[in-house]
Write a structure and sequence with these properties.
alpha/beta; sialyltransferase cstii, chain A; 7-stranded parallel beta sheet; about 35% helix; about 10% strand
């Protein structure tokens, strides 16, 4: 009898191991999490199936990690595509920049909840005099981009910033904008962006600036443990799966890429269970209307912009709203 019971127990143990292994293999996670990632990289809060199908959202760590960068690049196919949507021929620059960062976590260790209600705050002039600051601050996660200021505009745009996406030409350099609770996320478009980050975090005083379309920040106001590098795979999803932008452009064409705002939306759908928007509406009929909620730039600058396909982005956003996949707080 004892031998029979022992055989049953052993058989049950073997079955458990087999089932557990199969479940792990079918999990969407692309790699076993490292010790520093286990708490917040598996993102167990699932999106609605229709959102996942339409937006092609799957489990993907949005931030690159130094300890598995090459393996993840291979699994995501990043190593077969050059920047801005891959890592091919820029691996050494990615590794240099990542070596200066202290972690690749999404939320803090004390935050174990993954079902987040998030708002992505654009920089559109539609936010002016709307008094949405309190509503924006009520969300679990507030995502902003580039140098859209909070200081002086709190009533309209709120005070909190959980994540701020940026590139070298758009990041704050004035310490007045520093927020110790913000995670700053670098969106990489060229190898020089990574070298710029490496130079700043390494204390280099001589930084080459003529390779940027305008002078980048010459000092980093965020601490290294606040900085992350966005996986180019998210930018690729935004450009190709969402906007269906061409994968190749002729020599006579200027390549078009997604705006930081739309990339921020792709990021939001990877870490949030609900995504709302504010400040994404533009008035194309009036060239003199305010482009941003700050400053004096007008819509004429956006209309002349050949780097983005704004019409395609506005069409995509309308489709999301028509299907009730997102809520736009500034939609009239």
């Amino acid at each position: 009898m004892r031998r029979i019971l022992l055989a049953i127990i052993l058989a049950a143990g073997v079955m458990y191991v087999i089932l557990h292994s199969n479940l792990w293999r079918t999990n969407d996670s692309w790699l076993p999490p490292t010790d520093t990632e286990k708490k917040d990289q598996l993102m167990p809060c699932t999106l609605k199936s229709n959102i996942s199908a339409i937006l092609k959202v799957h489990k993907l760590n949005p931030f690159l990690c130094s300890n598995n960068f090459l393996a993840v690049s291979r699994l995501n196919g990043n190593n077969r595509i050059e920047l801005p949507y891959g890592t091919m021929r820029a691996e050494k620059y990615f590794q240099l920049a990542l070596s200066r960062l202290q972690n690749c976590g999404i939320f803090g260790e004390e935050d174990r909840s993954f079902c987040k209600k998030c708002v992505v705050v654009g920089n559109g002039g539609i936010l002016r005099n709307r008094s949405l600051g309190e509503a924006i601050d009520s969300y679990d996660v507030v995502i902003r981009m580039n140098n859209g200021p909070v200081v002086g505009y709190e009533e309209d745009v709120g005070r909190r910033t959980t994540f701020r996406l940026f590139y070298p030409e758009s990041v704050f350099s004035d310490p007045v904008h520093y927020d110790p609770k913000t995670t700053a996320v670098l969106v990489v478009f060229k190898p020089h962006d990574l070298k710029w980050l490496w130079d700043l975090l390494s204390g280099q005083r001589s930084i080459k600036t003529n390779v940027f379309w305008k002078k980048p920040a010459m000092q980093m106001i965020y601490k290294s443990d606040q900085i992350r590098i966005l996986d180019p795979a998210l930018t690729k999803i935004t450009a190709h799966d969402w906007l269906h932008l061409p994968t190749k452009f002729s020599k006579l064409e200027k390549p078009k890429h997604p705006t930081t705002g739309l990339i921020a939306m792709a990021f939001a759908f990877h870490i949030c269970s609900q995504v709302h928007l504010a400040g994404f509406r533009y008035n194309f009929s009036d060239r003199n209307s305010s482009l941003h909620y700050y400053g004096n730039d007008t819509m004429s600058l956006m209309i002349q912009n050949e780097y983005h396909d704004i019409a395609a982005e506005q069409k995509f956003l309308k489709e999301l709203m028509d299907r009730n996949l997102v809520v736009n707080l500034t939609e009239e």
